[in-house]
Design goal:
six-stranded mixed β-sheet; six-stranded parallel β-sheet; 12 helices; binds MU-OXO-diiron; ODP_dom
């Protein structure tokens, strides 16, 4: 991989092809990268670290770039352990390194790694000179932890953005979007942004989705900077697609979506599943884009992705214990936790002796200010097309 981003910026991150579930929750079908960067001048700064499992590879990446030169500063933009868990190792190898971070990160560094000394605390707009290179620091709280900040390399108009503008997916080829490719993606897309877009949506919706308001605040703050390059902690370095990724994060954090339907269902004996598939078939007949997710067999990660992608959400759930069948409740709960709004909503599901799931799903949707397409379809016992007129529902969706 070409790790030279510029004469002064080198990529020293790693690709993780081994982890199956990220954060114990989210699948990684294409892996993930933990990005870290060196800024090399009279002084050297390391921007974030990487995941602890990769210490040998990570240290080797650093040495290949700077040999035995010492690193003067470790900039900690974000304390989540996928980026900070080699902090202790770096301190052992570079004992004089000075940690540069903000006040909110200091107790976290102590709490996670027992490190309390040689820390330089920066505030909004503070700068650090490396010689002929200047790093400026801007706070970006809750993008996605409270201590998050970003670092701007003034002379190269480069933003080290932490998780912001990141994606799932390991990176093949070079790290820059001029030649980066999503690892394992067989059918290459027309460009790097198009190829990573679904994994960016999944990353955003799964991990950052709750924080739309704070992402908006950060975007507003950063709009005052001229940004030519974005070095995120996950995924490609954006050079050709800076405007695309900034516009897309803006859209996602406003909860704006394209026309289409995310159908997510959970079914015990197949009746709610048949209703879901009937809705999908009727939407297809009308040329409406949709995705269909079985919440009993599929990780909910993909349904969250499409709930952020499409402007309509349809949830199917039988009634269970006079409540919503748990896999569907889990999905709906996650949508509410992520404050998903600006969506049209439709609920459906079977019951045997008393229906509750559709009513309860509708109540949750209304609390999120979602617009109900109809009162939903709650049907007794077995599925029949007569009980579930999905043609009428699809018609309503396609006309609205
Ligand atoms: Fe990739 Fe919030 O850590």
């Amino acid at each position: 991989m070409n790790r030279k981003i510029s004469e002064k910026i080198r990529y020293v991150g790693v690709n993780d092809h081994h982890k199956v579930i990220f954060e114990g929750l989210w699948p990684l079908p294409f892996g993930v990268s933990y990005n870290s960067y060196l800024v090399i001048d009279d002084k050297i700064a390391l921007i974030d670290t990487a995941e602890a499992d990769f210490s040998n590879e990570y240290l080797s990446n650093i040495r290949k770039q700077i040999g035995n030169r010492p690193i003067d500063y470790l900039v900690v933009n974000h304390m989540e352990p996928d980026h900070s868990s080699l902090l202790g190792v770096i301190r052992e190898i570079y004992p004089d390194i000075r940690i540069v971070t903000n006040a909110k990160a200091v107790p976290m560094i102590g709490g996670y790694y027992g490190v309390t000394d040689n820390i330089h605390v920066v505030k909004e707009g503070d700068t650090l000179s490396l010689g002929n290179s200047t790093l400026a620091f801007y706070m970006a709280p809750m993008v996605h932890w409270p201590e998050t900040m970003v670092t701007y390399f003034v002379e190269e108009k480069t933003l080290f953005s932490g998780d912001a503008f990141g994606t799932f997916g390991a990176v093949d080829g070079g790290i820059a979007d001029t030649d980066a490719r999503l690892c394992g993606w067989l059918d290459k897309s027309e460009n790097c942004f198009a190829e990573f877009k679904d994994e960016m949506t999944r990353y955003y919706s799964n991990i950052v989705g709750k924080y739309g308001q704070t992402v908006q605040a950060a975007l507003k703050k950063l709009s005052g900077l001229e940004i030519k390059r974005i070095c995120s902690t996950h995924g490609p370095v954006w050079e050709n697609h800076v405007a695309d990724v900034v516009a897309y994060y803006d859209k996602l954090s406003r909860y704006e979506a394209e026309r289409g339907v995310c159908i997510a269902y959970a079914s015990m004996y197949g009746n709610t599943a048949q209703a879901a598939k009937s809705l999908a078939a009727e939407l297809a007949k009308r040329g409406v884009k949709y995705s269909l997710h079985n919440l009993c067999t599929e990780n909910v990660s993909y349904a969250y992705r499409d709930a952020f992608k499409y402007d309509t959400i349809a949830i199917g759930a039988p009634t269970y214990n006079n409540d919503i069948f748990p896999p569907a409740y889990n999905f709906m709960y996650g949508l509410c936790a992520r404050l998903v709004k600006n969506r049209r909503f439709f609920a459906f599901g079977s019951f045997t002796w008393a229906g509750a799931s559709v009513r309860l799903l509708n109540e949750m949707a209304k609390k999120q200010d979602m617009e109900l397409i109809s009162e939903g379809i709650s049907f007794p016992q077995g599925y029949t097309p007569e009980k579930c007129n999905m043609a009428a529902v699809a018609e309503l969706i396609s006309k609205q």
